[in-house]
Design a protein that fits this description.
The chain is α+β, with helices and mostly antiparallel strands. The protein has one domain. Helices cover 43% and strands 14% of the residues.
């Protein structure tokens, strides 16, 4: 006499349930990733609205992988922190290398010198957050937003590591056609 737990119908139902749970877990992970990305976009907009481009401003820069030949990256958009510095306000001998952006030509801005803006990558943005001058009134708000973004980025990193481990282990399996 055959046990009900060993019947093919029961085993097929167990396999189907396990696949449904796996699919559900992956959908939850991707939904969480979308929620994190949406909140990071809101934080980016909030930081940029609180502190427009000025000397010393720390902003979040979001970028994609498509320029590097990678398609289908689950982690896009990626985030890096940059600090805007106006080189015309710094000493001549203290100009480290960075990406440079120029304001419009001096002819379009009569009476003003051309400004050279550099965006410096900052791994730890809270260390470089300005607290005086024009930033005095807003530095607490910016600090709160940066801390929230860093927490979300840590959560995103853990989630992406789990998804990556799953994808790598799945790819290493050798499947034979039944």
């Amino acid at each position: 006499m055959r046990n009900k737990k060993n019947s093919p119908q029961y085993l097929d139902a167990l396999a189907a349930t396990a696949l449904d749970e796996l699919r559900s877990d992956l959908e939850k992970a991707l939904d969480t990733l979308q929620r994190i990305n949406a909140r990071l976009a809101e934080i980016d907009e909030a930081i940029r609205s609180l502190q427009p481009k000025r000397h010393g401003a720390i902003v979040m820069e979001r970028y994609g992988c498509e320029g590097h030949g990678v398609l289908g990256c689950v982690g896009c958009p990626h985030v890096r922190w940059v600090q805007w510095l106006d080189l015309s306000r710094q000493e001549e001998n203290h100009k480290p290398k960075a990406r440079q952006y120029r304001d419009e030509a001096p002819e379009q801005r009569p009476g003003l010198a051309r400004k050279t803006w550099n965006a410096y990558l900052r791994e730890h943005p809270l260390r470089y957050l300005r607290r005086t001058g024009p930033f005095e009134a807003i530095h607490r708000d910016i600090e709160t937003l940066i801390k929230e973004a860093q927490t979300l980025l840590q959560e995103k990193s853990k989630l992406l590591n789990s998804i990556g481990n799953f994808r790598r282990s799945f790819r290493q399996m050798k499947f034979s056609q039944p």
